[in-house]
Amino acid sequence: MTEKKSAGFSLKSFLFGKPKDPLDPRVFHQISLVAFLAWVGLGADGLSSSAYGPEEAYLALGQHFYLALLLAIMTAVTVFIISASYSQIIELFPTGGGGYLVATKLLGSRAGLVSGSALVVDYMLTITISIASSADALFSFLPVLLGPYKFLVEVMLIFALIFLNLRGVRESVLFLLPIFLLFIVMHIVVLTMGVLPHAADMPALVANSYQEVNRDVQGLGLLATLGILLHAYSLGGGTYTGIEAVSNGLQILREPRVVTGKKTMLYMATSLAFTAGGILLCYLLNRVMHEPGKTLNASLFANIYGAFFGADSTTTATLVIVTLITEAALLIVAAQAGFLDGPRVLSNMSLDSWTPHRLSHLSDQLVTRNGVWFMGIASLGFLAYSHGEVKLLVVMYSINVFLTFTLSQLGMCRHWWQVRRTAEPWRMKLAINGLGLLSTSTILCVTVATKFLEGGWLTIVVTFVFVLLCQAVRWHYDRVQKALESLDDTLLGIPFQPDLKAPTPVKNAQAPTAGIIVRDFDGIGVHTLLNIQRLFPNHFHNIVFISVGVIDTGQFKGHAEIESLKRKKEEDLKSFVDFATCLGWYAEYRYDLGVDLIDELEQICNLVAKEFPRTVFFSGKLVFEEESVFTRLLHNHTPYTLQQKLQFAGREMMILPIRVFLSSKSPRNLERGSSGLP
User: Fold this and answer.
1) CATH of the domain at 588
2) Is 8 exposed, middle or buried (0-12, 13-18, 19+ CB in 10 A)?
3) Which tens digit of pLDDT belongs to each residue from 212-229?
């Protein structure tokens, strides 16, 4: 392995922080989150939904507002049911992956594709709706004249979060911690103030609600009354969004991850049930009505504080503004959860070749930079389409959330039934996931049925298109993989037969040297070596094989995975050396591990050129009969970029083309990671 060059001052380091060393065993501890910080970084998505979920549910009741008591109970119970079912997912899948991995492993790759696609679109909408709701909360107390600037503020907030997440996960969470804590404190205070003065009226409220329900059942019928309740319940589905974030983000949790994840889930469920259920109850107790230009929560806070300090007092106005600011700020933290989990789902899908492999690449801050940009730009697109209208975004948002929920719960139910003979207590576990399946599927069906024409259709269309694009990406990778397998079968079958009569090759650093850029011990590398022999017979005395073990999200899960990558890289390079030695060359190898392929290769090549002054570097490059969007997007251009850098450093490099003939027949499905295909 080569020695890392020291990092000096640069604008990049100043803006995004100093690079993190993925080879440092301490880095996993340094960037991981304890349960409390995970609650902040991942739980904010769920908790912030109390800013719009209860409001949409309550408004859907219309004149039947007395049903809010039942709705509050149903909301709190549903939160704990879904949380309990996801705690079981954490136990079964301790490495993370969330809904995508659950569906893939328990229901099949196609179900996993649908779940993953739904999750990706969902996290796009998480960012969009959180930012839009945040702006609504802020502009609830700002002058009406500033209304036209709301969209511009939303765009600026998304770009600010992109920048923050490019700096790193832990850094972004610590920055947002005070906001989260202030939200918790303010909402505990305001909800307590909204409920306690009415504590003596609770028995009468329960009795009155019971009488009103009976009256509606007799007048409208049981099904109609139940339909009103379920409709409001489904529109409040946004309340439960974000609960799955912990299972998706287990990779960033402190060891032991299962224990940390379950603690985080408990914190999230308790805080969300208290906040969402408490807000619905306060709506009912305080007879809150919709006011133009204000969120329902803004009206609620004004009523509660006004009852204590006077409706027109400065104290009331100040407390309302502070509470709304904390709400708006937490919604920004919730958007942050979309930037944490969205790129992670994309990277998991890229490791299975559903999305471009570059989406699993890590930056020097150990974040999926390409995924962050992808999620940010996509959320801007949804924001532009919806014009920041929360009512529309809630409908679009809820569908995919509950599609993923339903697939996950269905997979878990199937799992417990299949292992019922060996897993105890399987009945209890099946019951928990079964209740989760009933709740999520009910909300999904009602939402799609009632809100399809009101914006739900767009979510379905976008998700369907994303699924088709993923299918096309996988199809292309599979075709290329099949072509490369033919090359591997042909060239890797060449036997190692050294000429025992020939003298053992001896190193001569001043002699012509070929520095060959390789990846794995595969047909591409062997093809490049044999081409050098064919094009330059008896010219090169030394061969130096150069490689980089790219640390992407597939390897960056723990120190054991890094060590495994290191061993694999050394084994492959030793195979190349043995092969070249058999052909009569003196051969050795150089390699390193890192996240930036180009930078690492450039460093190694410069070191090799200092040791072997007459080095010419070579690299194979796949070329296709017809260039297309897929070939340009899905295959890296590392050789060309490296050639440019080495040329300006005074080094010579040649690129040897490797023709790829793509068969028209559909190849068998293969799963290959980001470091697998060029």
Assistant:
1) 3.40.50.620
2) exposed
3) 888 888 888 888 888 888
